[in-house]
Automatic annotation (TrEMBL):
Residues 1-27 are annotated as: Disordered. Residues 1-19 have a biased composition (Low complexity). This is Glycoside hydrolase family 3 C-terminal domain-containing protein. It comes from the Bacteria.
Length: 974
């Protein structure tokens, strides 16, 4: 730290250097003053131009161009070679926020490392982290999130965001943007699907994932999601300028997702013109419009039109620009020297330190799912290198590292086989096989073979070979549900399609339209039809499914089904047989199976199956029959229903696609050089039948995630094994009573009772008793990853705040800390509980509901056949009946000596009239009043209706029962 005189001289020098410029370029002035100075110098048109993602330069003021949005989920993406860390799911699986902060710092450094050359796509506004909760493992973007738990997600996102933006008290290394707000877990029809969120689940679950990083100023803004939330597009969610900004202490720069503004007038059909749409987004709290790629013309025109028509004011524009300039100023952009992070150079990218960090993170993320004795009596893992003469490394992912859509380019690759071979060294021999068939495809009519090329760039696929030479041979990788990829035996490149011809020149499947997918469609016995699968598993993205056929010159293209060529499949090599032979001769077999991130679920493509690919499952079973000492490594982006493997395979290991050091990290774990301590961050289910529909967002009512799931999981939340054992002492409390605004410390002694040093993740769960409302079965409220030498002990202390036990009270629209007991559970997972204790909570009792005051209909306790909908396009929520005899419940209402009148604000778009009845006790209980609801002609046209109440006194559960489709925004019973 510089001395006070030195700091003063630095400020004087900075000011002296800035005298020839403008005040906004003076580092000695407060940021707010600098922003106001620059804002005042901009013309109206210049200000509007800054509201697009691609902000142009303002040469007359010396302001450079600026771009929002560099993808950085687990390293820099789309900017060339950079350090690739484990997928976000893997980062969270470390349960190590200190480590993840270091990862964030490394990614932030690498973003800064490109600042001097500014390649296309570069910027210091980083679009990370993703905190959308993993409430359903079928979500295509599961790999991008951290956990199904909001607390764990909050801790990890805070750590990563803090690392990205750096430790300086005033300046930012980078400006991270948290995404996607809100409740975005569906890719199918993602811009038109509606996430219906009752108040409790919205506040306690979905919003809770965003609050920690925002409240700690660990991120500088939010990105909106594509979906609708309670009937209103997230792009115009008024919470952006309300709750979201209130959570943060610093000004935020909020952005839309790519082309989301156009959805408002497109698929969502929410506004008639883009001027109306962009005006609404701006007023809702959007500062930067990500739209039409680099073409800002439409956005500028729309906002200019909106201003001229009075839909927005210049002060609305100024507010958004102020947010933008505030972040740019904090990045040091307007400082003469670029600020305190301005000197970071490109040398940090893929530096030795970052390589070591990638390896450390990859191995800390690995989860040991199972480790049971194999024949011989001892657990298969860890492997003993001194005793192994031969190891068979098998499977479709043994020799390949796959990257995902938001991954950077790997600077180098250590595959699982390479990592194991290097670790084993000269002590033993590594053999193996991908375990996939190598085939040739012969035109059943002409006898010509499909043939590629043997050079690095392959060749155009033709029907030209008269014999199945190497260039006519392809390895068939099975990714499940009939989808395969074809990898050329001649050059190890995948066969792909560029829109005109097929060529074996692809490093791996990828791209927005994944054009390396095929289906070998059986027809007439051994003769198969090769179908181009395109982007979707059933149809080509651009229309009906298409098939392969050669033109007159032999070049293969796409045709309709009726014109398709029939090919005979000739098996050159039986992959399973080859793998079995290698496994039979080995001391141990390691099968590396899993998923391909561009195929098995990704952005815009949800999963429809959670099983292993059929071919991979068959391979594992065959290898296990040949060698009972089989280890299965699952390398995937999400949970899988590996029930057979769990029951039969002695050792199971899971990792995400973990980047460049995957093989080294796996070897560290398999050979016991590092004791595994990764933990699952979401439930692994036994079957898809354990899950409700993908669009069911109400986790409380639907019993979703470990918080409410009542079934038996395959692997529970927080699960992960070790090569050593840990004993927990009884949990102790600093106080047996918890009062509002207070806290208690839970202490537990943990002892490593095994013979190996290792890490344990100590987890604190809470279960409330006697609540007015349905509560989680248990809820994570603290954890710590501790490292213990064999035989050593430590005391883990976890702080529990009163706020951690509060929940949303729908009766009064605020959080409540209820009086009663809380059971505190300490354990190694949500089901492996090692100790319990009870805490007395001195809070309050939720009083009976008072419906004499105007009550929002959306604040119900339970429901059937209704959806929450937008009361107006600007703000507010209402209840909309979507079924006849739909109802909403308001529990434990005190009607006193008698309520005499029922009044409601209602809307009915349909013709005719319906009935809204007030019933006591049940949806079929006694009717104490009802009103006729006539057509108002529009879903947003509300009117007040009233009816006399009879016999409405005492304490009852009150039901509003709808005869048919209508909306209710508020009501009272007086």
């Amino acid at each position: 730290m510089a001395s006070a005189p030195a700091a003063a001289r630095t400020r004087q020098a900075a000011r002296a250097g800035a005298r020839t410029g403008h005040p906004f370029q003076d580092p000695g002035l407060p940021f707010a003053d600098r922003v106001e100075d620059l804002l005042g110098r901009l013309t109206r048109d210049e200000k509007i131009s800054l509201l697009h993602q691609y902000q142009p330069a303002v040469p007359r003021l010396g302001v450079r161009s600026f771009r929002t949005g560099t993808e950085a989920l687990h390293g820099l993406a789309w900017l060339g070679k950079a350090t690739v860390f484990p997928q976000a799911l893997g980062l969270a699986s470390t349960w190590n926020p200190a480590l993840i902060k270091r990862v964030g710092a490394a990614v932030g450094d690498e973003a800064r490392g490109l600042q001097h050359e500014r390649p296309k796509g570069w910027g210091l506004n980083l679009w990370a982290p993703v905190v959308n909760l993993l409430r359903d493992p079928r979500w295509g973007r599961n790999e991008e999130g951290y956990s199904e738990d909001p607390y764990l997600t909050g801790v990890i996102s805070l750590a990563y965001g803090t690392g990205l933006q750096g430790e300086h008290p005033r300046y930012l290394k980078t400006a991270p943007t948290i995404k996607h707000y809100l409740a975005n877990n569906t890719e199918h029809n993602r811009s038109t699907s509606d996430s219906v969120l009752p108040p409790r689940v919205r506040h306690e679950y979905y919003e809770a994932a965003f609050r920690p990083a925002l409240a700690a100023d660990a991120v500088t803004g939010v990105m909106t999601s594509y979906n609708l939330v309670n009937g209103r597009p997230a792009t115009v969610n008024p919470d952006l300028d309300g709750a979201v900004r209130k959570w943060a202490r610093q000004d935020l720069l909020n952005v839309t997702d790519a082309d989301a503004p156009n959805n408002l007038t497109g698929g969502q059909d929410y506004y008639s013109t883009l001027a109306e749409a962009d005006a609404a987004a701006l007023k809702a709290g959007i500062d930067s419009f990500t739209s039409d790629s680099e073409d800002s013309g439409k956005t500028v025109k729309a906002l200019t039109t909106a201003l001229e028509k009075g839909l927005i004011s210049e002060s609305d524009i100024d507010t958004a620009v102020r947010h933008i300039l505030g972040v740019r100023c904090r990045l040091g952009e307007f400082d003469p020297d670029g600020g305190p992070y301005g000197k970071i150079s490109k040398s940090v990218i893929d530096s030795p330190a970052h390589r070591a960090l990638a390896r450390e993170t990859a191995r800390e993320a690995i989860v040991l799912l199972k480790n049971a004795p194999a024949p011989g009596g001892r657990a298969v893992l860890p492997l003993d290198a001194k005793r192994l003469k031969k190891v068979a490394v098998l499977g479709p992912l043994a020799d390949t590292l796959y990257t995902d859509w938001y991954s950077g380019s790997l600077p180098y690759e250590v595959t699982p086989r390479e990592g194991i071979k290097k670790r084993l060294g000269s002590a033993g021999k590594v053999t193996g096989s991908a375990g996939v068939d190598r085939i040739a495809l012969k035109n059943a009519a002409t006898g010509a073979y499909l043939t590629g090329g043997d050079g690095a760039d392959g060749a155009v696929l033709t029907e030209s070979g008269s014999s199945p030479g190497t260039t006519a041979q392809f390895d068939v990788y099975d990714w499940g549900q009939g989808i395969v990829t074809l990898r050329s035996a001649a050059n190890a490149k995948y066969l792909g399609y560029d829109g005109k011809v097929f060529r074996n020149d692809q490093e791996q499947p990828g791209g927005w339209y994944v054009q390396q997918q095929f289906v070998l469609e059986k027809q007439d016995g051994d003769v198969r039809l090769v179908r181009y699968a395109g982007y979707d598993t059933l149809t080509d993205w651009f229309g009906p499914k298409k098939y392969l056929k050669a033109d007159d010159d032999g070049t293969v293209g796409l045709v309709a089904e009726k014109d398709a060529t029939r090919y005979t499949v000739e098996t050159v090599r039986d992959g399973v047989a080859e793998a079995v032979e290698a496994a039979r001769e080995a001391d141990v077999a390691v099968v590396v199976a899993g998923t391909m991130p561009a195929i098995n679920g990704r952005e815009d493509h949800d999963r429809t199956d959670m099983s292993l690919a059929e071919g991979q499952s068959a391979l594992i079973k065959a290898v296990h029959r040949a060698n009972p000492r089989t280890v299965v490594v699952l390398e995937s982006s999400y949970p899988q229903t590996v029930t057979w493997e769990q029951s039969r395979i002695p050792a199971l290991v899971w990792t995400t696609h973990a980047g460049q050091e995957t093989g080294t990290a796996l070897a560290d774990i398999l050979f016991g050089d590092h004791n595994p301590a990764g933990r699952l961050t979401q439930t692994w289910y036994r079957s898809q039948d354990d899950l409700p529909g993908l669009l069911e967002y109400d986790i409380i009512k639907a019993d979703r995630t470990y918080l409410y799931f009542r079934g038996k999981a395959l692997y529970p939340f927080g699960h992960g094994l070790s090569y050593t054992t840990f004993r927990y002492g009884p949990p102790r409390l600093s106080s047996r009573t918890l009062r509002p605004e207070g806290s208690v410390t839970v202490s537990v002694e943990v002892t490593n009772t095994g013979r190996r040093d290792g890490d344990e993740v100590v987890q604190l769960y809470v279960r409330r008793r006697g609540s007015r409302d349905k509560q989680p079965l248990q809820q994570l409220r603290g954890f710590e990853r501790v490292r213990l030498k064999a035989g050593h002990s430590t005391t883990v202390r976890l702080k529990l705040r009163a706020a951690d036990l509060a929940h949303w009270d729908v009766t009064r629209g605020r959080e409540v800390l209820e009086s009663g007991e809380a059971e505190l559970r300490i354990g190694a997972s949500c089901t492996d509980i090692r100790g319990r204790t009870t805490l007395l909570v001195r809070g309050e009792k939720v009083p009976p509901r008072d419906l004499s005051r105007t009550t929002r209909a959306a604040d119900f306790d339970d429901y059937r056949g209704v959806r929450l909908v937008d009361e107006s396009k600007a703000r507010g929520e209402a209840v909309g009946a979507v079924e006849d005899r739909a109802w909403v419940l308001f529990r434990d209402v005190d009607l006193g000596s008698g309520a005499r009148e029922f009044t409601a604000r209602v809307a009915r778009e349909a013709r005719g009239s319906g009935n809204l009845a007030v019933r006591l006790g049940s949806p079929r209980g006694r009717v104490v009043g009802s009103v006729e609801v006539r057509s108002t002609g529009d879903r947003y046209a509300y009117e007040s209706v009233s009816a006399r109440l009879r016999g409405a006194h005492g304490r009852h559960d009150v039901y509003l029962v709808f005869s048919d489709a209508m909306r209710v925004s508020s009501f009272s019973m007086r």
